[in-house]
Write a structure and sequence with these properties.
Number of helices of chain A: 3
Strand content of chain A: 25-35%
CATH topology of chain B: Butyryl-CoA Dehydrogenase, subunit A, domain 3
CATH architecture of chain B: Up-down Bundle
Structural class of chain B: mainly alpha
Shape of chain B: globular
Largest sheet of chain B: none
CATH class of chain B: Mainly Alpha
Helix content of chain B: over 70%
Distance between the termini of chain A: 100 Å
Strand order of the largest sheet of chain A: 2-3-4-5
Strand content of chain B: under 5%
Oligomer: heterodimer
Helix content of chain A: 25-40%
Largest sheet of chain A: 4 strands, antiparallel
Largest interface: A-B, 24 and 36 residues
Distance between the termini of chain B: 35 Å
Number of strands of chain A: 5
Chain lengths: 167, 164
C-alpha cells in the first residue's frame, strides 16, 4: 500500500463540491414532518407486532361457549338431531344466589345435511352410512335477577355414522 | 468524523458527511440535483431510525439502495445511466473543486475506473470509511473491498503514468 501513498495524498487534496445550501433546509423540513405510513414492504418496527385485545376477548368467549356446549353434549350423549331445528329448554329458575347468568337454552338449526354414502369403519363389520350435517347453534344465558340475557351463536359441523339396515 | 459518529445533532453529522455522501450518490446520477435528492431521502430515512451515525456502513448502504431504486424508477433514466456506467467515455463526472491541470488529469483518470472500484475509492478517500464499513455497505468481504481499492489505485497510477 505504501506504493500508493503519494497518489492517495493527491486524491485527498481533491475536494468534492459542497452540496447546495438548501439541502440542509430540505432535510430539516423532512425530519420535522411526521413519518409517512409505509405503503408496502417492511413495516416499521413499532407496528410489526400489535396485540389485539378484541380478538383475544372474542377467542376466549368462543372457547367458553364451546366448553359449555361440550358439557351440554356430554350430559345428553344419545341425543340425535333429526329435526331441522330443535330447542332445548333449561329451567330459568336461578339457583345462583349471586344473581349471575345461568344457562337458559340451546337452539340448534340444521341447515344442511349431506349423505356421504357407505363406509366401512375399521372397528365395525357392517357398513355404515356417513351423514354430514351443518348447523347453527345458539346458547343463551339469562340473569334471573335483572332479566339480562347473553346469546352466543356459532356454526357447527357433525358427522354421524348410521348403521345400515338390511332390506 | 469521530464527532459526527456520536453527535446527536443531525446538522453537525450531516454537514461533515454531506460532500462525501453527495459525491458517493453522484456515481449513479447525471446531475448533482438528483444526487442531493437521493442523499436527502437516505439521510432522513436513516436518521429517523437510528438518530446517530454510529453505523456509517449502513448509511452508505441506504444511499446506495435508494440510488439504485432511483435509477429503476425511471426506465428512460435507467437506460441512460446503464449506458453511462458501461461506457467509459461517457462515465459520470465526479464533482470536485479542480485547482490545476494535475487535478484535472486525476479526475479524468478517476472517470476511467470501473464502477465497482470507483465506489470503493470514493468511500475510502472522500468518506474515510474503513474497509469493514465498506464491506458492510457493499455486502462484500473486507478482502474484496481492499482488493478493489488496491486495483483502483493501481489503475489510476497506470493511467496517470501513461498520460504523462
Amino acid at each position: 500500500m505504501s506504493d500508493f501513498s503519494e497518489l492517495e495524498d493527491q486524491l485527498r487534496k481533491l475536494r468534492p463540491l459542497q452540496p447546495s445550501g438548501d439541502l440542509v433546509t430540505r432535510i430539516g423540513r423532512s425530519l420535522a414532518e411526521k413519518e409517512p405510513v409505509p405503503i408496502a414492504g417492511v413495516l416499521s418496527p413499532q407496528r410489526r407486532f400489535h396485540f389485539n385485545w378484541l380478538s383475544l376477548g372474542l377467542g376466549l368467549a368462543a372457547t367458553a361457549a364451546l366448553v359449555i356446549f361440550a358439557f351440554v353434549r356430554i350430559e345428553q350423549p344419545g341425543k340425535q338431531t333429526p329435526a331441522i331445528a330443535s330447542t332445548v329448554g333449561v329451567p330459568a329458575v336461578s339457583s345462583n344466589p349471586n344473581g349471575q347468568l345461568v344457562p337458559a337454552g340451546l337452539t340448534q338449526v340444521v341447515y344442511h345435511t349431506r349423505d356421504e354414502g357407505l363406509h366401512f369403519p375399521t372397528n365395525s363389520e357392517q357398513p355404515m352410512r356417513r351423514v354430514r350435517s351443518q348447523s347453527q347453534q345458539t346458547l343463551r344465558w339469562r340473569n334471573p335477577k335483572t332479566g339480562a340475557t347473553l346469546r352466543i351463536s356459532y356454526p357447527t359441523e357433525e358427522v354421524s355414522l348410521l348403521p345400515v339396515t338390511g332390506q | 468524523m469521530e464527532n459526527a459518529a456520536t453527535d446527536e445533532n443531525w446538522k453537525t453529522c450531516f454537514c461533515q458527511l454531506a460532500p462525501g455522501l453527495v459525491l458517493f450518490a453522484r456515481q449513479w446520477t447525471r446531475s448533482a440535483a438528483d444526487a442531493e435528492d437521493i442523499v436527502q431521502e437516505a439521510f432522513v430515512k436513516f436518521w429517523r431510525r437510528h438518530h446517530n451515525i454510529a453505523n456509517r456502513g449502513l448509511l452508505y448502504a441506504t444511499v446506495r439502495s435508494i440510488a439504485l431504486d432511483f435509477i429503476r424508477r425511471d426506465s428512460r433514466r435507467a437506460r441512460r445511466e446503464a449506458s453511462a456506467l458501461s461506457d467509459a467515455d461517457q462515465s459520470v463526472q465526479p464533482e470536485f473543486d479542480i485547482e490545476d491541470d494535475s487535478q484535472r488529469a486525476l479526475v479524468a483518470a478517476l472517470d476511467l475506473l470501473p464502477s465497482e472500484q470507483r465506489e470503493v475509492l470514493v468511500m475510502k478517500i472522500w468518506n474515510e470509511l474503513t474497509f469493514a464499513e465498506i464491506s458492510s455497505a457493499l455486502e462484500i468481504s473486507q478482502n474484496t473491498a481492499a482488493s478493489r481499492y488496491r486495483y483502483a489505485l493501481a489503475a489510476l497510477k497506470k493511467n496517470l503514468t501513461a498520460n504523462v
